Amino acid sequence: MIKLDNVKKSYRMGDSIFEALKGISLTIEQGELVAIVGPSGSGKSTTMNILGLLDKPTSGKYYLDGMDTSKFLGDELSALRNKRLGFIFQQFFLLPKLSAIDNVMLPLTYRHEDKLSAKAMSDLAMAMLAKVHMEKFAHHRPTELSGGQQQRVAIARALIGKPSIIMADEPTGALDTKTTQQIMDLLTSQMEEIGATVVIITHSLEVAAQCHRAIHIRDGLLIDPEALEKKSH
Questions:
Q1: Cα end-to-end distance, the chain, whole Å
Q2: pLDDT for 174
């Protein structure tokens, strides 16, 4: 479960302070598929960085599976992130010199899976590629794959360690409509299979509509879009 309690985040910009988040509280239950929706500059990427343990709140608390994440520092925080979280990005971030299967194996190395042999890790990676229908491209490098194929490899990489939470930052932003639907179907099916929570950062209302629910953010605050619409009328 994810819980943010009055989380604020500010950055110093010269002589002034910029408030990216102005006091956000939310709860996301295990197994939910949730979209965080907002325009550029709304605070959604800052929210993802905090949820993904890539940044810390200026104030407020972030609880991950009941643990106060502010208590984790340095290597402990990295270990928590590597064990609990999987990441999917709009630009894929596959290592260009590695094959698809080697890219998928990377999280196992980062998680210090010392008990697994190289063959065991390779077998796991191949099985995960099969789940995303990419086993035939296991030895292709990213430059030899289409955008949709690269995102499938990235999903396999995110899922191989069986994370409890998957953070997806605009995972379909660089894809066409047909491929977007394929990727959303794939994310949904794999999420249900491993029981993971998926948080999708997106500006697309079409993507958000396929999630269990959408959390809307604007100017660093959570908003109710229906209430805003009624107010504008």
A1: 37
A2: 78
